[in-house]
Amino acid sequence: MINVLLADDQRLVRAGFKSILDGEDDIAVVAEAADGEEAVRMARSVRPDVVLMDVRMPVLDGLAATRRILAEVPGAKVVILTTFDLDDYVYGALRAGASGFLVKDTEPMELIHGVRVVARGDALIAPAVTRRLIAEFAGRVDRPAPSPRLNSLTEREREVMVLVANGLSNDEIAEKLVLSPATAKTHVSRIMTKLSVRDRAQLVVLAYESGMVKPGWLT
Question: How many domains does the chain have?
Answer without folding.
Answer: 2
